[in-house]
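Chain A, query sequence.
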Amino acid sequence: MPAAAFFDLDKTIIAKSSTLAFSKPFQAGGLISRRAVLRSAYAQFVYLVGGADHDQMEKLRAFMSQLVGGWDVATVREIVAETLHTVVDPLVYDEAVGLIAEHRAAGRDVVIVSTSGTEVVEPIGEMLGADLVVATRLEVVDGKYTGGIAYYAYGEEKAAAVRRLAEERGYDLAGSYAYSDSITDVPMLDAVGHPHAVNPDRDLRKVAASRGWPVLVFTKPVALRSRSLPPARPTLAALAVGGVVAVGGVLWASSRKRRSVA
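Chain A, predicted structure.
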């Protein structure tokens, strides 16, 4: 039976949050204000230091509709496409690129499973030569985001998506691998025979120690142009679960501010 390698994206493959990395391009495109960009910078710092726990992620989801409703989908995709290599290329971990190459050489599919949205995750997956992408999806009507969330790739749902893929594509989960930095991804890590904690937050580090999971430390962001990647598959199969745009930092910063005021 074939096997797969499932990768979280933020702080696992790239050194920052993909939902925060595009704040400045979105400001330049007229989608968010300078104040929101500054809040995103603060949220990026908080995320890098402490990670995002369940409560923060739930607040992010709740506030998302307040910001993105009415955004033009084509504009978002255009901004991401034009700035992808400038924004993301320097943030990719050299160690992650090496792991992806090893799994591809061993004949395993590489699957990115991220709570970020398909407009961001799918192009990054294609850039990395991934075979499949699982990501969050916002509702779209007449080419614009309504603010509703159609699919939320988070927590237990990530594990459910992994199991569905295994059933559909015949993956041997006992022989498969998974990598993540976050305690919220324990269900996904539990779903495979070879879980790995990468740059783990404090809670995931404790779980990894108690269960004997390997802990990997990635420290060397590298420009992809300086690395030789295996040729990509003919088509990156983006599952029908993609779609949240890269605005998490703005929402997260707003939620933290409201919580501190409360």
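Residues 3 and 172 are 5 Å apart (CA to CA). Residues 34-50 form the longest helix (17 residues).
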